[in-house]
Each structure stands twice: as structure tokens, then as C-alpha cells.
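Q: Hi! First time doing this. I have a protein sequence and I read that you can turn it into a structure. Is that right? Here it is:
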Amino acid sequence: MNFTDLKELQADLERNYQKLPLVQKVSDIVHGEGNEHASVMLIGEAPGYYESVQRRPFVGRSGQLLRQILVASGLSENQVYISNIIKVRPPDNRDPLPSEILAFKPYLDDEINLIKPKLIVTLGRFSMAKFLPDVKVSQVHGRLHKIKWNERTLFILPMYHPAAALRATQVKESFIQDFNKITKIIAWIDETSGSEEFKETVKKALL
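A: Yes, that's right. Below is the predicted 3D structure, encoded as C-alpha cells:
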């Protein structure tokens, strides 16, 4: 699909909602939100109850934590774009099924292509698996990855999901530490993107 902006993409999603799993009506859809030209794109799993009511991503307890830490790390909400792997709340907040992830995949791909973020932050294992399918969050959180994706180079920073941070103090501490790396990582990407020194620079900077 070739959309010129996010409004066009979102209109197409609403127009074709009957072809998608989980969607009973247009108001079930929770679009991504934020700066269409954001340097940082945050991708979560799926809307929860409060997200489905407000039709905004990350506004429940875990979303409030995410937004608080985002600001504390030196980023404002209008500097980022926030979205999810799927755009509709699964029943009882269950995990999204592979078929559901696949059905919503074109829309997330188009969001990424339109925004062209310098850095994608994956929140939890489902969004991480889109780019890094064979690893565990506990093993790679906070480590910057440079990958080829749809003929483009992307920088991926895996993190725990904020819901996990609410459940365990140690995870929350790691979540905060990882978030505090974002502004420095953006600066490093600007300085070293395309350079042979990239890996070594980031490795040293993140030690």
C-alpha cells in the first residue's frame, strides 16, 4: 500500500475493518499517535481496556508509567510516535495470535515507512519478534541492534513491556535504565550511521 500520510493510512484501516480479525466496529480500532516525523517510534503489543475506551495507545497503568519515564528520560510525547503490533484489544487482554499479527502487519509496516524513525523501541516480546525473532527480551533489552528490514536499515532497541515493569522492581529499574539511553543513542546514530565504526562506537558507549 502506498499512503501519503498517516491520516490516509488510518482512513483505509477504518474503511476495511470488516476484513480484519477482532474488529466488530470502527470504534474498536486504536490507532497509533504522535509525531508523524518522530525520531523515535515505540511499538507495543496490543491495546488494553483503557486504550480501547479512550482509543489511544498506552493510557492505562502501564501506559502512564511509559509516558512518565519517557518525559523523565528527556523526551516529550510530541517527539515520539507510539503504536502497537495489532490495533484492537484481544478478548480478556490475551496474547495476540500469529494470524492477528499477520493481518495487521501491513498497517504497522506502512506506519514505519511513513514515519521513517531513526530508532524503533520495541516494548515486549511480540513487537521485538517482528524484527528480532530468535531472542528473548531478558537477553537483549537495552542493546542496540542494526538490522536490514524491507530493504531498509533500521536501528532497534528492545525493551521490556511497561506492564512487566509494573510487576517487578528489578524489571522496572532495567526499563528506566534502558529508556535513559535513547537520547544518547539518537545522537550516536546521527553521528555514526553508515560508518564502519558504528558497532564499536555503540558497544563502547553502552558499556
